[in-house]
Fold this sequence. Notes:
16 helices; 0% strand; mainly alpha; single chain; globular
Amino acid sequence: MQRFIQRIASIDIDALYTWTTLVVIPLFVLCPEFKSQVFVVYAFLFVLKVRKDGYTTCGLEVLFAVAVLGLAASALGAWDARVLKEVWRVARIISLPILMSQYRPVRDLHNKLAWIFAALAVYGLARFFVAPMVTGYSEREYCYLDFYMNSSLVAFSGYIFSLVTLIRQPGRWWKAAGTASLVVFAYLILLHGVRASYLVFLALTPCILLVEFKRRILVAGVILALGAGLFVCGLRILQPGLLNTAVERLRTIVDMNQGSNRGRLTFWKKAVEVFREHPVNGIGYKRFNRDHVKLPAEEHVWSFWHAHNEWLGMLAETGLIGTFAWLAFKLKLFLLFFRDRKTWLGAFMLYLFVVFECHNLFEVYLNERTAYIYMYLLFGLGLNQLLRREAPAPSAAASP
Length: 400
């Protein structure tokens, strides 16, 4: 036993963490059914690291506990054992940045992430050629994860990484690589047909350009107009049907008679009603669905498995206690990334966080947890890197 402990102590836990993370992120995209195993892997590494070198705080610990307790408080009055089980599942996800904030920075992280996203871009394009055969979902194909809305977020993460690379990284090679991957991931976002992604794409891209170019608004405008023009022209020539479909889906966003819109308005109105009836701690986390809440009309019951808005769902399920606790945790994570926004990694994490939260206004990704795990793996990797001081930036001549 003593010999086994000595061997464990001799392992380079930091190197093990690096390679584990660089493998787990793309592997989880390929095999999203291994949700629980992700937490187990990082919990095991965390125990080894803390046992060997002690614990390093990241600033999220107190608000993590507050968030978990706030959600757990919704079990009072509901007396449903499944509430605490679902809270435990959420706790495992949002603990990832804490578990991953114990290690030395990953060397040349930008290079390694570039290779990962390049592989995901190629894989995504390849999957779309065989998506109906692979997934059996021919109406709306998807290439990542286990549902097209989760899948679209993976494509969006690649888009944000490519955009930050194009703007922040010096050197012609990085500019060319960033441009190519930006076009591919924008194309993949378009192929998914997720209206929330379309809306976030159109709203945040110009905002990011304005932030990045600051007072050079004219430069940002020219880049945006030129890039959008070339992209649209290419689609009109190569795939006019896809462009027409995307435009039609954008038009449905403002059509309140469209089925999905009517359903969301019904769910949101009901969530507000439930919150007014249970304002303190809600009706129990993960209980705002057709099994526990009756809608006034039967038309949308089939899709009533959550509120289709994370924050309204939180208000109905956890009341003011859980919602404010959840908000405090997320605000702290946002501020940690905002503090380092001048670095390429800080900018990537900040924009990715904003993109994810904008999507959460139209969906409850905690319901399936898949996209949440993927995002918090990236947040954990980024937070560890920023807290431990980022490794030297990759050179302009480095290969992505």
